[in-house]
Amino acid sequence: MILNVLKLNAQNYYQAYSIHCNGHSHPWSESVFADCFTDNYQAYALQQDNTVVGLYVALFVLDEATLMDIGVDASYRGRGLSRVLMSHFLAQCKASNIHYVWLEVRASNFAAIGLYEAFGFEQIERRKGYYKTQEGQEDALMMRLALGATE
């Protein structure tokens, strides 16, 4: 198994966008996804044997980063690939001298919450009814990781 992390751009994002769409009940439009290739964004795909199996998109502003999306194709989940993506993302944060990393996650997404907590993220806030669902709305958990910052 050969893993490769590939920077996404306007020419190679289609497989990653498909994973994004399949992983969300209310995915971004393709134009919103494609807008994530501007200067302040970091967007990467994870390839396994030349097949895109995961992605992440993050926004970097000053000394803070926000993880906008991270996901692994459903048929490749449970293999530790989200850890590979998260490790790459946090290495990019450290290389960019990021002090705080932010993210939000659906309160019911226990697998993602477990991943984030394993990397040291802490819940900061709960936003009631933030996400749309098929049945109505769901809470979002705001989480933060301090990378060498002092408060």
Structure write-up:
The chain has 151 residues and is of the alpha+beta class. It has a single domain (3-146), classed as Aminopeptidase. It has four helices and seven strands. It has helices at 14-22, 30-34, 81-95, 110-118, and strands at 3-7, 41-48, 51-61, 64-72, 100-106, 122-132, 137-146. The protein has a seven-stranded mixed sheet, with helices on both faces. A hairpin with a 2-residue loop joins strand 2 and strand 3 (51-61). The longest helix has 15 residues, at 81-95. The radius of gyration is 15 Å and the shape is globular. The mean pLDDT is 92.
In brief:
With 151 residues, this protein is α+β, with helices and mostly antiparallel strands. It has helices at 14-22, 30-34, 81-95, 110-118; strands at residues 3-7, 41-48, 51-61, 64-72, 100-106, 122-132, 137-146.
CATH class reads: Alpha Beta
Distance between the termini: 42 Å
The major sheet is characterized as: 7 strands, mixed
SSE sequence, one letter per element: EHHEEEHEHEE
What's the structural domain tally? Answer: 1
Organism: Paraglaciecola mesophila
Protein name: [Ribosomal protein bS18]-alanine N-acetyltransferase
Family: Belongs to the acetyltransferase family. RimI subfamily.
Main location: cytoplasm
Topology:
Blueprint: E1 3-7, H1 14-22, H2 30-34, E2 41-48, E3 51-61, E4 64-72, H3 81-95, E5 100-106, H4 110-118, E6 122-132, E7 137-146
Parallel strand pairs: 4-5
Antiparallel strand pairs: 1-2, 2-3, 3-4, 5-7, 6-7
Organism: Paraglaciecola mesophila
EC number: 2.3.1.266
Domain N-acetyltransferase: 3-148
